[in-house]
From TrEMBL:
<keyword id="KW-0067">ATP-binding</keyword>
<dbReference type="InterPro" id="IPR027640">
    <property type="entry name" value="Kinesin-like_fam"/>
</dbReference>
<keyword id="KW-0493">Microtubule</keyword>
<feature type="coiled-coil region">
    <location>
        <begin position="151"/>
        <end position="248"/>
    </location>
</feature>
<keyword id="KW-0175">Coiled coil</keyword>
<feature type="domain" description="Kinesin motor">
    <location>
        <begin position="332"/>
        <end position="707"/>
    </location>
</feature>
<feature type="coiled-coil region">
    <location>
        <begin position="284"/>
        <end position="318"/>
    </location>
</feature>
<feature type="compositionally biased region" description="Polar residues">
    <location>
        <begin position="64"/>
        <end position="74"/>
    </location>
</feature>
<feature type="binding site">
    <location>
        <begin position="450"/>
        <end position="457"/>
    </location>
    <ligand>
        <name>ATP</name>
    </ligand>
</feature>
<dbReference type="InterPro" id="IPR027417">
    <property type="entry name" value="P-loop_NTPase"/>
</dbReference>
<dbReference type="InterPro" id="IPR036961">
    <property type="entry name" value="Kinesin_motor_dom_sf"/>
</dbReference>
<dbReference type="GO" id="GO:0005874">
    <property type="term" value="C:microtubule"/>
</dbReference>
<dbReference type="GO" id="GO:0003777">
    <property type="term" value="F:microtubule motor activity"/>
</dbReference>
<keyword id="KW-0547">Nucleotide-binding</keyword>
<dbReference type="InterPro" id="IPR001752">
    <property type="entry name" value="Kinesin_motor_dom"/>
</dbReference>
<dbReference type="InterPro" id="IPR019821">
    <property type="entry name" value="Kinesin_motor_CS"/>
</dbReference>
<feature type="compositionally biased region" description="Low complexity">
    <location>
        <begin position="97"/>
        <end position="119"/>
    </location>
</feature>
């Protein structure tokens, strides 16, 4: 391969050789040489004056050899290029070889070229000089020698050519070999290039792979680093754990050593205890025997208790029957009379009627002044029945037209008369039996009747202290207490309460929401159950007696709102607190109950003031007040009418009872009719100023007291 460029670089020389190839032909070479010689001569002749003599003279012995020499001189460079033949050159050479210079016939050109020479000679010949002949001969000789030389040259050239041909053949062979080598080399090169490309690709792939591997390795290293850090952290934690464990172990060792000591102590104690245990075991055996004896006794006692419980339940039934018989014997309408004490406020109100005007106002309760003033203000009331407390005697003195003092004494008898110093507890003691009836399933109704300021509200609601608590809180408390007691007799009770006000024949819910009740309430009686419901009123489930206090407070606040709007309304309206009780006999401690159900209600009514309509007041402009009073009187007289009708019904049998004549009587229909127990508490003012009103009230109460209402019925349902 390395030889190839060298071959190519020899081309110019080869071209040169080709240009000289012609002259290298024997004929042509000779002609050329001749021409050269002639040209040289002509040139020389040109340089010099054209004289033939001058030619001979200048080069007399000069053979044509110099031309050949000149050729040789020029061709002296030839042998070297001939060693580097090329194919085309070979062709020319072949052509040159195919026309050997041995041909005797000179080429046309030689002839042509010879023409000038001939001309020169012919030009010289006309001179026909002997020198010319000589010269011609010389030239002939020269020519012969030249031709000989030429032949020799041709021979030599032929040899050279042969040698050259051999060289060419050799070179061709070389060339072929080299071509093959070149082809092989090229294919090798191609293969190598392919391999190189392949190798480059592989290298590239390997680089990529390497990069990937490096990246993987770096990631791996980072992962390992992380793991290493984690492991280090774990190791640190493990070390700290280990440290703690060591501490724990050392503390445990300490504990173990302590416990070993303790164990020794305990073992000793254990032995002691075992000894004690043995002793105790014998005691236990003794006790076990005692226990089994006691169990037998207990079983028999339990049987006795069960028998007693059954007996108690039976006796409860008997008690209730007897209790109600007593109540019936007492009458289903009973009347209590209660006279309130003289209050310090009375002294102020009626100071004008006192003989020592103004002195009483400064006296406090219990003081001498107060007692004196009290005496003066008090009406003449006497309570002769000190044993049964059933009588009240009212004495009044008036002047007759003749000026004589006329004394009148009124005797009234009631189921119970309470003197001014009687306490709330004493009053309730008499009432509590009725509350008991309520839990037995009876409808109970307690009225407080009397003129304004006679103590109705005090009796029913009472004061803020426990001792001054009125009938409503006490009755509720009693009902709860009885209900609790009745649990031991197999009864379970549910209680709920409502608080209504009847003002100007309109029902207002005192436990309702909002400041003022604007709803229209209707009264509904259930003939089957004997119960009464009022629509759209708040019925509060009662779970404890203390709840009643808050209910009374709510009712009081609503009444006071109304009072500010409507002028002392509390004394101008009836308030009805209703406690409904429903009970069922579920039995006790495995003793199956009877399933008996009862529903009772306790109505505690604070009636409006019963004073008569003042004539002068009636003529006044306060029509609203007149209307109030008329309504109060109407409802109170309706109450009297109902009670009277009930009494007449008891006597005669059939009788229409005018319950619908007032809202009050219609509301209390079920509590006034035959299947209820009614109590009227007549509240009296002790003041002489109120004597006439007191007498009116006493007469009304007597009328009620004389009424006998049919036997009360228990509201019982058997499920
Ligand atoms: N037995 C009593 N012991 C002590 N104070 C009493 C007694 N009865 C009534 N009072 C007092 O007399 C005043 C009037 O009583 P109360 O308001 O109860 O009368 P009332 O008949 O309800 O009047 P009204 O019809 O206007 O409501 C009150 O201050 C009350 O505390």
């Amino acid at each position: 391969m390395s030889r190839l460029p060298r071959l190519r670089s020899s081309s110019p020389d080869r071209t040169h050789l080709a240009s000289d190839a012609g002259p290298s032909l024997p004929g042509r070479t000779t002609t050329s040489l001749k021409r050269k010689a002639i040209i040289e001569e002509e040139e020389e002749a040109g340089d010099q004056p054209r004289k033939l003599a001058a030619v001979g003279a200048t080069r007399p012995n000069r053979p044509l050899q110099p031309s050949r020499t000149a050729t040789n001189t020029r061709g002296a460079a030839l042998p070297k290029p001939l060693t580097k033949p090329r194919a085309p050159t070979l062709t020319q050479s072949t052509r040159g070889t195919s026309a050997p210079p041995t041909s005797s016939k000179p080429p046309t050109r030689s002839t042509t070229s010879r023409t000038p020479a001939t001309r020169v000679v012919s030009g010289a010949r006309p001179a026909s000089r002997p020198s010319d002949d000589k010269r011609f001969n010389e030239l002939q000789t020269q020519l012969t020698s030249i031709e000989a030389a030429r032949a020799a040259d041709a021979e030599r050239l032929a040899r050279d050519m042969e040698a050259e041909r051999n060289k060419v053949a050799e070179l061709q062979a070389n060339h072929l070999a080299l071509s093959r080598e070149l082809a092989t080399a090229k294919s090798q090169e191609l293969n190598q290039r392919r391999e190189l490309v392949h190798a480059s690709d592989e290298i590239e792939n390997m680089k990529k792979k390497h990069l990937r591997e490096v990246a993987d390795l770096e990631a791996d290293i980072r992962k390992r680093d992380r793991e290493l850090r984690e492991v280090n952290e774990d190791l640190r934690l493990c070390r700290s754990d280990l440290e703690r464990e060591r501490e724990t172990v050392s503390s445990l060792k300490n504990t173990i050593s302590h416990q070993s000591t303790a164990q020794l102590t305990l073992t000793t104690q254990n032995h002691t205890l075992e000894a004690q245990s043995t002793a105790l075991q014998s005691q236990i055996d003794a006790y076990a025997r005692t226990v089994s004896e006691l169990t037998l006794k207990l079983e028999s006692t339990q049987k006795q208790v069960d028998d007693l419980k059954k007996e108690a339940m039976d006796s409860e039934l008997v008690r209730r029957k007897l209790h109600n018989m007593v109540q019936e014997l007492k009458g289903n309408i009973r009347v209590f009379c209660r006279v309130r004490p003289v209050l310090p406020s009375d002294l102020t109100t009626y100071a004008a009627s006192l003989s020592t005007s103004g002195s009483a106002s400064s006296g406090s309760e219990g003081s001498l002044d107060f007692e004196k003033s009290k005496e003066e203000l008090q009406a003449n009331l006497a309570f002769p029945d000190t044993r049964d407390h059933k009588e009240i005697v009212v004495s009044s003195s008036s002047s007759s037209a003749t000026g004589q003092e006329r004394k009148e004494i009124y005797n009234f008898g009631f189921d119970r008369v309470f003197e001014p110093d009687s306490t709330q507890a004493e009053v309730f003691e008499e009432i509590s039996q009725l509350a008991q009836s309520c839990t037995d399933g009876y409808n109970v109704c307690i009225f407080a009747y009397g003129q304004t300021g006679s103590g109705k509200s005090f009796t029913m609601e009472g004061g803020a202290t426990d001792s001054s608590a009125g009938m409503i809180p006490r009755a509720v408390e009693q009902v709860f207490r009885v209900a609790e007691e009745m649990k031991s007799r197999g009864w379970e009770y549910k209680m709920e309460g409502q608080f209504l006000e009847i003002y100007n024949e309109t029902i207002n819910d005192l436990l309702g929401k909002g400041e003022f009740d604007k709803k229209k309430h209707e009264i509904k009686h259930d003939a089957k159950t004997g119960s009464t419901r009022v629509t759209d009123v708040e019925v509060v489930p009662l779970t404890s007696p203390s709840q009643v206090k808050s209910l009374l407070a709510i009712a009081q606040s609503r009444r006071s709102v109304a009072a500010t709007l409507m002028n002392e309304r509390s004394s101008r309206s009836h308030s009805v607190f209703t406690l409904r009780i429903s009970g069922v006999n579920v039995g006790i401690d495995g003793c199956v109950g009877t399933g008996e159900r009862c529903e009772g209600s306790l109505n505690l009514v604070d009636l409006a003031g019963s004073e008569r309509l003042n004539v002068s007041f009636a003529n006044g402009a306060d029509k609203e007040r007149v209307r109030e009073t008329q309504n109060i009187n109407k409802s109170l007289s309706a109450l009297g009418d109902v009670i009277a009708a009930l009494g007449e019904k008891g006597e005669k049998g059939e009788k229409h009872i005018p319950y619908r004549n007032s809202k009050l009587t219609y509301l209390l229909q079920n509590s006034l009719s035959g299947n209820s127990k009614t109590l009227m508490v007549l509240n009296l003012s002790p003041l002489a100023a109120h004597l006439q009103e007191s007498l009116t009230s006493l007469r009304f109460a007597t009328k009620v007291n004389n009424t006998t209402i049919g036997t009360a019925k228990k509201q019982v349902r058997t499920s």
